[in-house]
Predict the structure.
Amino acid sequence: MKVLVIGGGAREHALCRALSLDPQVTALHCAPGNAGITQVALTHPVDPLDGSAVADLAVALGADLVVVGPEAPLVAGVADAVSAVGIPVFGPSGEAAQLEGSKAFAKDVMAAANVPTARSYVCTTPEEAAHALDAFGAPYVVKDDGLAAGKGVVVTSDLQAALDHAASCERVVIEEYLDGPEVSLFAVCDGDTVVPLQPAQDFKRAYDGDQGPNTGGMGAYSPLPWADPELVDEVLRTVLQPTVDELRRRGTPFSGLLYAGLAITSRGVRVIEFNARFGDPETQVVLARLKTPLGGLLHAAATGHLADFPELRWSDGAAVTVVVAAEGYPEAPRGGDPITGLAEAEAADGSAYVLHAGTRLAEDGVTVLSAGGRVLSVTATGKDLDQARGRAYQATARISLAGAHHRSDIAAGV
Ligand code: AMP
Ligand code: GLY
């Protein structure tokens, strides 16, 4: 099977790494990729947002499967363009990706499918926003309706800050504050059948102790020893299957990866958000534990054959990933600095490895330079979380990047 992966972050590096370990995958390509992905896939300088360029590349390569990683191409309809040339694609249509592309659309689907989520108002004027904020009280949750790379959400007890964020967006969703730990649960879907993966936890704030601004995610771990063993079944029954059924009923079936961001509140599980693609950095730890070959699973989803797919197999061990971010991330990340110690960070037995997010090769073709906010995702496995965490931080310590920062409390004390 020839596979083409679209995107160039740590999630795509994790996808390419897992696909490269699948014996069924005979050729692996990625567009545009990054400096790390070149080690496992042939990369192509194609704009991931350009549906016809992606479809042309897939045809030229004779791809049997295209996997679209990030949300922006999905919302732009890149999966539709690939489907139109008759190549199986893992990733939802532009219409189904509205589940992530518009928070208001997601709320509407959840209401129709009876999926538990925070009560909310969709507001388009400052007066409506002020009224909604008053109705729920502090802490205030104000979300930009459109895509914002994890940075469109403000959670604050400062009414003026909440009003200011609302005023800076065209359309906002204002909702009730959800208390309790967060869980990311991914499910592979073919429009009909839903196969949940193992849950993971992400660390959204920039600094230790959940301080600082929201980011795309600073680290993750899996499994969650504190979670109810029934959690996955419950979320499948109350959230994932009803959502997929509702989208099919609307004539926009969801095939691809459905990501439920959940809060485990004192009143039960609630959906914080849906995404229409693998989460980053949770994918790094979930795929590190998946023993079932990934290519076959994604191909079965893309071709509508999940119902016949054998039960997934998982490692009993744990995985932890630590994101190394550029100086200034998330506000104003600095790029273009050399990174050293990458080879030294890799464990000979494969228990620790570096996934690249924002990197590129320098003119010399050897030096790796930073080229993004989140630069690396240092991932490790172990028999339990303590061992995986120790290995991840040991590997992180071997890497040097001027001004970089990472959290030191990923998977600590769980
Ligand atoms: P989102 O982009 O919707 O996932 O929101 C980003 C982050 O904001 C989430 O991971 C939560 O930490 C926080 N957040 C979003 N919605 C709520 C809510 N209703 N109550 C509490 N925290 C929230
Ligand atoms: N880790 C959060 C996200 O992928 O949106």
About this structure: Residues 150, 202, 216-217, 275, 279-280, 282 surround glycine (ligand 2) (CB under 6 Å). The mean pLDDT is 96. The chain has four domains: 2-90, 121-175, 181-308, 318-401. Residues 29 and 247 are 31 Å apart (CA to CA).
